Amino acid sequence: GAGVSQSPSNKVTEKGKDVELRCDPISGHTALYWYRQSLGQGLEFLIYFQGNSAPDKSGLPSDRFSAERTGGSVSTLTIQRTQQEDSAVYLCASSLGGPGNYGYTFGSGTRLTVV
Amino acid sequence: AQSVTQLGSHVSVSEGALVLLRCNYSSSVPPYLFWYVQYPNQGLQLLLKYTTGATLVKGINGFEAEFKKSETSFHLTKPSAHMSDAAEYFCSGGSQGNLIFGKGTKLSVKP
Fold first, then answer.
1. Cα(A78)–Cα(B35) distance, integer angstroms
2. In 3D, which of A12, A52, A9, A46 has the Cα closest to residue A30?
C-alpha cells in the first residue's frame, strides 16, 4: 500500500482481556518496528523485525507482549491479560532496509484504552 | 548506552519568531540522526535526516538542523514560526537496528 496501515485505530478493552493490533507495512519494506507512545514518555521501542532474521524483542516490557510477522509483511502485536498500564498509543513503522538510509515511515497508530 | 535527550518538553514562540528545539545525543548514536514531527492525532512524519559529512541539514517546511559533533547536538531551527508549525517534535537516532527517540518537545505558536 501507499503507507503504513494500522488497525484498529482505537481499541477499548476490559482489564484481563487479550488484544491484537495489526500493522500492514509499505510493500517492499523489509524492516518493521513497534513502538509504544505514552503521554509525556516519548516513544518506547518494543520489537523490531528485519527480513528473515530473528526479531529483536529486547524492548518488550513483559511476557504478556508478543509479536509476529507473517510472510515478511503483516505484523500482529498481541497483548495478553491486558492491564491498565498498557493503555497507550501503539505505533508501527517500516523502513527499506535498516533505519539509517531513509528513516521510518509511521502508521497513524492504535490507541489502546484498558478499562 | 545510547541516548537522545531533548531539552524542554514545551516551547512557546510568537508567530514570525525563531524556533529553536534542542537535541543532544550520546556519542554512540551517530551516524543516524533524525527529526520527526507529530501533528495532533496523527502519526509521526519525517522532517529531516542527518547525512554523514553534512553540518547543516535542510528539511521540509523550512526547518533545518545543525550537526555539531563537538557538542553532540543536533538542534532544530526555523527562522520564522508559522501557526501551522504547532506540533510535537521528536529527535531520534541510533547506530544500528532500531532508533531511539527523545521524549518530544511540544511547540506552541502564539498569534
1. 29
2. A52
Distance from CA of A8 to the nearest CA of B (A): 14
Spell out where B18-63 has E strands.
19-25, 32-38, 44-49, 56-58
Q: Write the secondary structure of A29-89 as one string of H (helix), E (strand) and C (coil).
A: CCEEEEEEEECCCEEEEEEEEECCCCCECCCCCCCCEEEEECCCCCEEEEECCCCHHHCEE
Nearest CA among B31, B35, B32, B25 for reference residue B3: B25
Q: What are the 10-residue block averages of pLDDT along chain B, 111 residues in total?
A: 89 97 84 90 89 88 94 96 96 83 95 94
Surface of A (75-94) touching B: CB under 8 A: 91, 93
pLDDT at position B30 is: 66
User: What does the pLDDT read at residue B32?
Assistant: 84
Q: Which residues pair with A104 in a beta bridge?
A: none
Chain B residues with CB inside 8 Å of A105's CB?
A: 46
Contact partners, residue A15, CB within 8 Å, separation at least 6: A82, A83, A84, A114, A115
Chain B residues with CB under 8 Å of A106 CB are 36, 43-45
Identify all chain A residues contacting B53, using CB atoms and an 8 Å cutoff.
none
